[in-house]
Write a structure and sequence with these properties.
The protein is mainly α. The protein is about 95% helix and about 0% strand. Keywords: Membrane, Transmembrane, Transmembrane helix.
């Protein structure tokens, strides 16, 4: 009698534990899908904004080059000056890439995939 009750009790505990593990796995999957969806949506919006900013910058650059060309009576010189400004920006960006790109990207990933960690820091 005692052995049968023990076997039955252990069987119930085993079933409850398996159910618990299955539910935890499902919860983990849902959490992962939610975080990946947020990341994908955020990435898509930022990519669209960057795309539009690229075209705005391109037209501003062309207008600036032609404006400088009119002032200096040489369109070629206007384009060279605008290109030189961009080369200076590229050099500054390369020198500052760790501060401006790497650290913010790492922090953004931590914030997206470990939101609880970010709340604990505050």
């Amino acid at each position: 009698m005692f052995q049968e009750d023990l076997k039955e009790h252990l069987s119930d505990v085993k079933e409850d534990f398996e159910s618990y593990v299955d539910k935890r796995v499902d919860l983990l999957k849902l959490h992962l899908v939610e975080e990946l969806s947020r990341f994908t949506a955020s990435f898509t919006v930022k990519l669209g904004v960057l795309y539009l900013l690229f075209f705005a910058l391109m037209f501003i650059s062309l207008a600036s080059a032609f404006f400088l060309g009119d002032i200096l009576d040489s369109d070629g010189l206007g384009f060279v000056i605008v290109a030189g400004v961009y080369l200076i920006f590229v050099l500054i960006f390369i020198l500052m890439r760790r501060i401006w790109v790497q650290k913010p990207v790492i922090k953004a990933f931590i914030k997206i995939f470990f939101p609880k960690f970010d709340k604990d820091e505050a």
